[in-house]
Amino acid sequence: MTAPEPARTPILRAAILALTLAVSAVTLVAPVRAADPLDPPPARLFVTRQPLDAADVPAPAAAPAPPPVAVGAYDAALEAARVHFGVPGISLAVLKGDGSGWSGTAGSIEPGRPLVIGSVMKTFVAALTLQLSDEGAIGLGDPVTRYLPEAKMAQGVTIAELLQHTSGIADLFTDSLSQALNTDRAHAWTRAEILKTVGGPWFLPGRGWAYSNTNYLLLGMLIERVTGSPLRDVLAARLTGPLGLVNTHLIGPGEEADTGLLDPSWASAFWGSGATESTVDDLVRWGDALYGGSLLRPATLGRMTHFNKDDYGFGTQRVELTKTLVGAGHSGLLGTYTTLLVHLPRQDVTLAVIAHQSHADLKGILSYREGAAPSLLDLVFPG
Fold this sequence. Notes:
By secondary structure, the protein is α+β, with helices and mostly antiparallel strands. The chain contains 13 helices and nine strands. It has helices at about 10-20, 70-85, 120-135, 160-165, 175-185, 190-195, 215-225, 230-245, 265-270, 280-290, 300-305, 360-365, 375-380; strands spanning about 90-95, 100-105, 115, 250, 275-280, 315-320, 325-335, 335-345, 350-355. The strands form two sheets. Strands 2-1-9-8-7-6 form a six-stranded antiparallel sheet, sandwiched between helices. Helix 1 (about 10-20) crosses helix 8 (about 230-245) and helix 3 (about 120-135) packs across helix 7 (about 215-225). The longest helix is centred in the N-terminal third of the chain and has 18 residues, at about 70-85. The protein starts with 10 loop residues before the first helix and ends with a helix.
């Protein structure tokens, strides 16, 4: 079922599209290959907006602030939820389709400080992979070993199966690897070292579904192999640079952000699948651009948000905040940080939350009411 198009003032997305068009000549791609044989699915959740003429795109404008009483109400609701759930620090941002929004922090988190976003990084890697497919550099039905012959565990696996976690490749994150990462936290693991730790397949390719960080480690390697550039450079040239996401970077030795948020062992092990820093302000802009239709072709976005019975698409999860607030995005859990990004297409609202606590109940935090006071979701969706 396709949602109706909401009324909107397209200032922010217009600016995003202009920036995206401005870098369309970036040459981080491989020679064009044959057309992808996979057809897009017949149904999709998300509205596709008509592209704007670049000549009509206005200059970027700051999002208008809500009335002071609303600002105070947001602050109070965020602090009340933080205290109730015992979270040391939390950061929240909201971006609506008309360009208005709110962002704030409570507790130990400093405003504007980048934090670990974990598997929300998979939305970036998936978008890069889909862009390369749209450009003809790769095909989603191509075997992974065409580009990564050294990845023996990916024998018979397609790129699409990596994206959707239907490859059957075992997760790199195991008790034994966790122990090794903690034993020598200063050691930066190579991709080859990590892949050697991966166990045997969980099931035959395409015969099941299981979440595996190994899939996105391989996709990061594939992006580098196809473009001939480091993942951090491809990310900056195609996504974070054009969108102005100045606080979003890969974490770890040799990467743009080596901030101490993650030990080198953990950062290197989860490269491509989660070792990334960002802010909630960057994330809502990212979610709005990605799921609002500014970055991918309509059919490609449809495939990304076409969820299987396990509520997973291509690097995107179906997220249900309440029975009426359902959208797409991704959760993240790495180190001592829990993250949630969700775009709600029917309401045309994007939310991002980062808590400085492992396994924080972010949906509970968004829904929590203290007495007669409104919850955060009540404030975002009044009435």
